[in-house]
Amino acid sequence: MPSAFAHAIAGIALGKLFTGKKQPVKFWLLTLVCAAIPDADVIAFKFGISYHSMWGHRGFTHSITFSLLLGFLVAFLFFADKKWCSPKWWTYMLYFSTVTFSHALLDAMTNGGLGCAFFAPVSAERFFFPFRPIQVSPLSISRFFSEWGVRVMTSEFIWIWVPCLVIIFLVWVGRRVRE
Ligand SMILES: [Zn+2]
Predict the structure, then answer these.
(1) What count of other Cβ atoms lies within 10 Å of the Cβ of residue 100?
(2) Distance 38 CA to ligand 1 centre (A)
(3) DSSP class of residue 19?
(4) C-beta of residue 90 within 8 angstroms of C-beta of residue 67
(5) How far apart are CA 41 and CA 61, in angstroms?
(6) Which stretches does DSSP call E strand in the chain?
């Protein structure tokens, strides 16, 4: 996995692309949660569930189905002020689904571990993209503070932070020009 911070900045970039309007704090907090939460599945290791299992790390929580379900749940629970199933409500639902799935897309560009079960629970097959420049992050915090951690941060800076900050900047400039 890239680190939680890298997933978070990707979520923020998506949020900036999504809307130029001022959003409530909950919008940004939920964006961060959706971007990072798929890795809560590391708890599966504690229950003896193997990495290869559909319910293991990078399994179901890294799937299209999970992303859609979480997007639905977030829109249902936190954006009840938008009319249920109205175009606006669906936009929020799809936005949070996209943010959640951005996590798996980034993981599929890392150079280690297993791929992501994009199509769980229909299939447990794991997928990587052919282009995998992102240095995989260690699963334990203690191993992050090592030469491996430095490699992770350098690679995430180049492949995630810079493109995301460029997107955020361009969106900001684009909106200023149109104002
Ligand atoms: Zn992950």
Answers:
(1) 29
(2) 6
(3) -
(4) no
(5) 7
(6) none
Largest CA distance in the chain: 55
| Residue 103 Cα to ligand 1 middle (Å) | 6
As given in the structure block, the two tokens for residue 175 are 């909106």
Crossing angle of helices 64-78 and 25-36, in 10° steps, is: 160
Q: Is 45 helix (H, G, I), strand (E, B) or coil?
A: helix
Q: How far is CA 26 from CA 30, 74, 132, 179, in A?
A: 6, 10, 33, 26
What gap in Å lies between CA 33 and CA 37, rounded to an integer? 6
- Mean pLDDT in runs of 10 for the chain (179 residues)? 86 94 94 97 91 95 98 95 90 97 97 96 97 88 78 94 96 88
Q: How far is the CA of 63 from the centre of ligand 1 (A)?
A: 10
Cross-strand bridge partners of residue 127: 116
Q: What's residue 127's pLDDT?
A: 98
CA of 15 to the centre of ligand 1 (A): 19
Rg of the chain (C-alpha set):
17
